[in-house]
Specification:
The protein contains seven helices and five strands; from the N terminus they run αβαααβββαβαα. The chain has one domain. The protein has helices at residues 17-31, 44-53, 60-64, 69-79, 129-139, 149-160, 163-175, and strands at residues 37-42, 93-101, 107-116, 123-127, 145-146. Strands 1-2-3-4-5 form a five-stranded antiparallel beta sheet, sandwiched between helices. It starts with 16 loop residues before the first helix and ends in a 6-residue tail after the last helix. It is an alpha+beta fold and 181 residues long.
């Protein structure tokens, strides 16, 4: 049988947003001697969408309303971005990025949620309000959207350097009774 597939399959040079988030989560743990860690998990909004799909098409906004406030924020923010991110909920990858302290009974704080489709970019951020206010001022908008891998890295650097994220990490380190120096 003839191979009808193109030869350049599997030669992608882009990194998936999920891989970048997981790498950064790992780096935080190493940097804090695992007293404070980061975790990337499938968002509750994505879990609700998957549970409701059962091979039927449901409008994104209607499905997301069953989820958490994060899901509602996601539906609202995506409804205005039809050209940037597909409204077809079956194609969305949605992840929460959390900071956690294992010795504090795994206390965690969600700093952002990302959503993207099979094209990988753009990546839409739904941020904690304080972080959004701070980062939005840097980016000149409240709608934070990474259109490339470079933009994703730049936005992540701004988020991780924000006053709120640094404050959370430092507070969790103190409460964990550890020093990383």
């Amino acid at each position: 049988m003839a191979d009808l597939w193109p030869n350049d399959i599997g030669n992608a040079t882009q990194k998936a947003p999920l891989s970048i988030l997981q790498e950064q989560a790992s780096i935080l743990g190493a940097k804090t001697k695992n007293l404070v860690e980061a975790e990337v998990r499938v968002s509750s909004a994505a879990r609700v969408m998957a549970a409701d799909s059962k091979n039927k098409r449901v409008e994104l906004g209607a499905t997301i309303k069953l989820a958490t406030k994060t899901g509602e924020e996601l539906a609202s923010s995506l409804s205005d971005k039809a050209d940037d991110i597909s409204k077809d909920y079956l194609q969305l990858f949605v992840y929460d990025f959390l900071i956690a302290a294992p010795v504090l009974n795994n206390y965690s704080f969600r700093i952002f949620t990302v959503a993207y489709d099979f094209r990988l970019y753009p990546v839409k951020f739904i941020l904690d309000k304080d972080i959004q206010d701070e980062i939005g001022n840097v980016w000149g908008t409240q709608n934070i959207l990474a259109k490339s891998e470079d933009e994703l890295s730049s936005i992540l650097m701004q988020i991780f350097s924000s006053n709120k994220v640094r404050g959370i990490i430092n507070a969790l380190l103190v409460q964990s009774g550890g020093s990383i120096n």
